[in-house]
Amino acid sequence: MVLSMKKKRIAFLTGTRADYGILKPIMQAIKNSEKFELELIVTGMHLSQEFGNSINNIIKDGFEVQHQFEMDTRSDDNISMAKSVGKGIIGAATVLKETFPDAVIVLGDRTEALAMSISAAYMNIPIIHFSGGDRTGGIDESVRHAITKFAHIHFPATKESANRIIKMGENPKRVFIVGEPSLDKILNLKYMTKEEFSQKFNINLNKPLIVVIQHANTIESKDARNQIIKTLNVIKKLREQTIIIYPNSDSGGREIIKQIKLCSNLDFIQVYKNLSHEDYLNLLKYASVLIGNSSSGITEAPSFKLPVVNIGTRQQNRERGINVIDVDYSEKQILEGTNKALYDKDFQLKLNKCINPYGNGKTSEKVLEILTNFDFSKNILQKINTY
Which EC number applies (predicted)? Predict the structure, then answer.
């Protein structure tokens, strides 16, 4: 008689549309696996009507949300962000006590991931961290590296990030370079035709299409209003078709939203609180330029050879492709960068050689193979610096 092995339950935490889009291919691979069971924990922006209730996108994609907990606060300041971490730790601990998975997966540098990592670590639940080792600066980098020190298995996207994790004293045998998970979807999605896209978004693809995603930088949150005003002033000068997507619910985010609302009645601007990840990828495929400071411009846009006008310091230290034009918070520089992206023939020719430094779209396969062969015994919880 052959006894079937009990499936390992892997819990995924998602708090924003961005981390969900990145983790979705891994979630699907775990869901389809015969050796693992997917458990989904939802928090943060997903539960906010103000930011579009993106939990509905998750459910529409066919995933069952087993657990959720509130974390966002109603205020838009740094004190509220600090409080949200405490709120998140309590919420995460309550959920983990109920479900107690074999491991929990978190991504990047979000407060939701930090709260979950703290709770899981104290409850002796192994932590699997994606996108560790990246350099971003400010509080985001501190949070990312803190999660790295809590985590037991590391899935960085690039060799440089892997080397940073190892330099932090993490065991090299637990560090696996797997690429950026969202590229799996990019390279395998069945995209809309030009006609379908034009009809759905009411866009004339014979003209330039600008996409704007600008988040508040936590350490510059008091400047968020002035920063977005400069970007929007450039959009008003250009008067090209523009789609603006709401920022994250970070400190300063609501100030950005106020300014976006003030120009939402202009006939060349469309505003979305959020989009499904599939719609968003179609947007990147057919856009002429992405303006703002989203990590998507760094990790996803190169796969589309899409020009990115990257504003300010939020992504200043990350590896990037030749599609990125870095500018300061300056109307003059933003305008010059956008004109270069739209009209500079030499730059556009160079884009044909753009290679995405974040992988080749086979991350899910690698992750599933690694986790299948990994020893999840109690020794996994033993963390000792290698230096």
Answer: 5.1.3.14
